[in-house]
Amino acid sequence: AGTVILCIDNEPAILDGMETLLGGWSCRVLKAADLPGALAVLDASDTEPDGLLVDYHLDGGNGVGAIAALRHRLQRDLPAILITADRSARVREEARAAGVHVLNKPIKPASLRALMTQWRVQRVAAE
Hints:
It contains 5 helices and 7 strands. The chain is α/β, with parallel strands linked by helices. The strands form 2 sheets. The chain has a 5-stranded parallel β-sheet, with helices on both faces. A two-stranded antiparallel ribbon has the order 4-5. It starts with a strand and ends with a helix. The mean pLDDT is 94.
């Protein structure tokens, strides 16, 4: 509850579904279709996200690059989950090298919630 999540996906229906799921867990959801949209959302928001949920295949780039750019912009190693239907070793390795968890589509809500719970535990431990 109270966690702010920035979701990036170029499919509006996916963003709406994530907002419904995460909202049901009392999370605040910021939505964007791509990296420029995510940067605009951050500029317009009064808060920074606690974590990122980003689709791998984005118009004009990929999710790993978007995560790296957002981490650079926010000047912190923000927890992130890459959501993808691509099960290739290349994508898994790219995500691992960037310190990003991967969830394959279709995502299981319990798996997503477990990873997000780890974010909260790590944040509390760091404080």
